[in-house]
Please model this.
Amino acid sequence: MATLPTTTSEITAEWMTEALQGSATIPAGVTVAKVLLDPAGAGVGFMGEVATVGVVYDGDAGNAPTTMIAKFPTQSPEIRAMMQPTRIYEREHRFYSELAHMSPVRTPAIFHVTCEVADAAADEAYMLLMEDLSDLQLGDQVSGTTVDQARAALIGLAAHHAQFWNGAGMENADFIPVINGPLNQAGSPIYEASLPGFMEAFGTAIKPELADFVAGYAAMRPQILDELAAMPHTLVHFDYRADNLFFDDAGAVVVIDWQAISQGGGVADVAYLLSQNLTVDDRRAHEPELLRAYHDALVEAGVSDYGFDVLTADYRVGVGCGWMIPVLAVGSLDFTSERAVALWTAVIERAQSALIDHGFGS
Model:
């Protein structure tokens, strides 16, 4: 058996042949003659690496893809150890293996999954090969989703949430934590560790009426998670933002990056999308209409025990929940990336406006 790669530059034709034959992506008589790698072009983030891999086949590979996406966990031992209590890599890899086929929302086709769980981060192994979606339109969190994109994303999300409503289909999915369980509670100390870097970078952008909220958020988060856990449970994406959403030619949403999945209130996804991905003006102008579109789609998909008035009350909790994300991201931000700085500048402005609009300011 060829050695499992841990980074883009380690992918070999031999390993790729075994991986693609093992998933029946190519037949046994076909091999990978060459892999076309560009390690310098790999996207390396806080939690991992993503790269496009070209594939040249020897033999008739039929409709097998000639490009695909390779996704690896971070190779930083320190970050791997910090993230291990959250089980984010296991969550995503097992989602694709065990649950993705159940969701009505489109996810990338998967050509290989390695998911070796262990007690220590150094002993774990994870790797994904998946569909290259670059021919679709990717959402842009910097400029913000359009109102039409947000509506399409919410309609797809509602169909997904309805499929798993009240825990349906997750009875044996022990790898998906309850939203207020220990794995997600681990976010509070990570927030505390990230906050000094965040304040150094963006402290001057914090609105005075939110200063206490920002400083005390880690202590508040357990209650926020408890409130989300008390809502009807569904399969929550928990990172439902524009940069994880593609749109096909018909405008339907395609969703990637399932590392944070949890069981709890679906409004966490709804609120994150609307509060941090629409411009402030668009959110204020269209928020009620978009919430109604989501709720109508839930009802159409068979959810009958969740009134619109309850949704709107729960939505406020979801807005509060989303504040975790920019602090965690900015605490380790690469400030040489103009797009990253522009992204989080916009997100912080949008998130604060939503928090104030929904009563979190002092």
The first strand starts at residue 31 and ends at 36.
